[in-house]
Amino acid sequence: MIDLNLNEKTFKIDAPDEMPLLWVLRDVLGMTGTKFGCGVGVCATCTILENGKAVMACQITLEKTKGNRYTTIEGLSKDGDHPVQKAWVQCDVAQCGYCQPGMIMEACSLLSEVSSPSESAINKAFSNHICRCGTYPRIKQAMSLLVNSGKKE
Ligand code: FES
Ligand code: FES
Fold first, then answer.
1. How far is the CA of 129 from the centre of ligand 1 (A)?
2. Is the C-beta atom of 41 inside 6 A of ligand 1?
3. Is residue 70 lining ligand 1, measured as CB closer than 6 Å?
4. Measured CA angle at 35 (ends 4, 13), to 5 deg
5. Domain 2-76 CATH (choose: 3.40.50.10800, 3.50.50.60, 3.10.20.30, 2.120.10.30)
């Protein structure tokens, strides 16, 4: 049994130590906001926050979560009213939406580290994220909106 600190609550998880956190979230806890893309760390669809920094949930075993604090898209806001979510809506970023929880968590991570990231910092942060719908230009628009408005939390 492992205590998982997730979205400001503690969950007691009865699962194998080596189970990837992505499986714990989706299959054990039923939190399906974090999406499964590749399962091998190459698409970033499963991005969540670990102690405020973007990580890929498919690459972290349950055992390695000890002592860390995690946030998923479900924990970002109650009603989708986090500034990053609002900017995403305003710029109409999502198409199918599948990759967007990971993109939004990446944006939160970057903006918590750098209040006004440069275009190259934004490109670098999102460089490992795959969007089959090609929403990259609108992600950049939403990031510009957030940087220019100074809103991030
Ligand atoms: S599902 Fe985790 S990186 Fe693709
Ligand atoms: S919005 Fe469809 S995969 Fe990104």
1. 9
2. yes
3. no
4. 20
5. 3.10.20.30
Give the per-residue pLDDT at 151: 64
The reply to whether ligand 1 has any atom less than 6 angstroms from the CB of 130 is no
pLDDT digit string (tens) for 79-136?
999 999 999 999 999 999 999 999 999 999 999 999 899 999 999 999 999 999 999 9
Ligand 2 near 97 CB (within 6 A): yes
Domain parsing of the chain, residue ranges: 2-76, 83-149
Q: Which atom of ligand 1 is nearest to the CA of 37?
A: 1
Q: Is 45 in the pocket of ligand 2 (CB under 6 A)?
A: no
Task: Classify residue 126 as exposed, middle or buried by CB count within 10 Å of its CB (0-12, 13-18, 19+).
Answer: buried
Fold of 83-149: DNA polymerase; domain 1 (1.10.150)
Question: What's the predicted TM-score (pTM) here?
Answer: 0.96
